Amino acid sequence: MHSKHVTAVSAPLHACGHTGPGGNAAVLSEAVLDALPSPTVLLDPDGRVLLTNAAWAAAVETVDDDRMDGGVGVDYFAMARRACGKAVGRRIVDSLRALSRGERAGVAMDYSLEHPAGTHWYHLQASRLNQAGHVVVTHTDVTDRVQAERTSAWRARHDDLTELPNRAGLHELIDAALQRPERLPITVLFLDVDGFKDVNDSLGHEAGDDLLRQLAARLAGRTRSEDTVGRLGGDEFVVLCHDCDTAGAEALAQRFQSIFDEPFHLGGRTARLTASIGVATAWSGDPSGTRSTDLLRDADLAMYAAKRAGRSRMRVFSPELRDAVQQKVLVAGELREAIETGQLVLHYQPIVHLPSGQVDGVEALVRWQHPERGLLPPGEFIAVAEEYELIGLLTRWVLGAATRQAAEWAELGLPLLVGVNVSASTVATGMLVDDVAGALAASGLPPDRLIIELTETTVAEDPERAAAQFAVLRTSGVEVAIDDFGSGFSSLGQLVNIPAGVLKIDRSLVSGAVNGRSQAAAAIAAVVALAEACGMRALAEGVETAEQLALTATLGCTFAQGYYIARPMPADELRSWLRERAATGNRDSDRRASLAVRLSSTGH
Fold this sequence. Notes:
This protein is of the alpha/beta class. Helices cover about 45% and strands about 20% of the residues.
């Protein structure tokens, strides 16, 4: 017989001996088969074993039961069905019969076989030898390969730290649940740990990892047997709930939040945390074709709504949340275009030096001249710029426009200081000093004509990074102001260590100060004293009445700004306003208002 060699793969399909038809041809065939390292048999068209090799005989001996009787003359097809089970055995037999008839070019498949030591996997490969339909079949043990592949597949779908299903595994499980034909509610709970970053920052990443493992165990302990806990990454966990409607999910969310009642013990330290949870529900068998990405996105949106509501909350997804996100995406795209095409403008609000009554500075406030919605205040787009990483681009534009305008005013005989607000993310990137230097160099404005303003809460987020950049700015001649002081409750220790020259008192304190007798007035006096102790001057924001203007002067504020003095206005209107103010003597009226309050406060 003409023998064609094929690499073998799977398990022993037995033979107890390896003798065959007489003659030299048979001896030669036996020698060829014995040279093959994998268990190999030669079959006739009916599946009868004609020849076997030594590897086959050795393999058959490892399976000590009635399934394996693989000697010469044995019905291989019957043995395959008996050893591998009806379904797999039928597939093997049908494939080999088709090969023998010449209907296939070859056969290759994997199958498993139970051994006393456990399951083994084999790769079966077969070729047709001649027109008579004889077939040679080899079986190679690939157990190590299959186990390695399964381990790799498991790792690809599970989180190394917690051994829970990871993002890929969760998507597979959720999609499988949604594709079930019966119509059942499928709910996802999206859980994010409030304050996890603080644990990492204060106790280290090893403690953070320990916390995540403990949390994974607690979640799994509170989950129904039919549900699945997974970890998306970081401190984000997902619970997939089968046959669970929104009401049931809300009850589960409360159960999960209760696991935070007990503190986490982390290497001799304890941490008390909370969680924000978003809930989203879909239905399996839904013809609209909801996907795992849709359900997870909706639950994620609900979770962020819970965080915005104050943390340690639970929120159920509603279409309005998705609409809001889509609107923000639209605004972000339009804002990028607005920055690039010159739709942004600056308005300037005058700042009065109270001892002299003179306007010696302005605060630059960005506006968006939207082609359809008209002039938009910063509240309409600053948060979107922060969220979609446009704030750096926006800040650089404002710095450039404000410094150019201030330089132009100086050439016209109006040497006004100009203040520019910058955000926490600008400080966090460490680019503040470079951005300011670039704007000053391009405009030619002297550094001492620029004031950089950051809110109290911005400074409190990372006081060390803020202080380092402030120090460089002040060394270069740029002044620094802390904005909205009194709204963020930063510590006195942080304030003392921040190199700033101006402390801007939040408008909430100014608006509450009436007749010098309120608690707000006392708070303003305390802030002024604090500013003086730290070598800073105080500026009152949000001055809207003559009484507030006079009172802030009485309480020791050096500067003031607000609608009573002037609203923010375009650059060309500001010049007209300054000329009008000088002509009408508003400076004297401001002084008279201040004097009136001083007299009333002393009883005259």
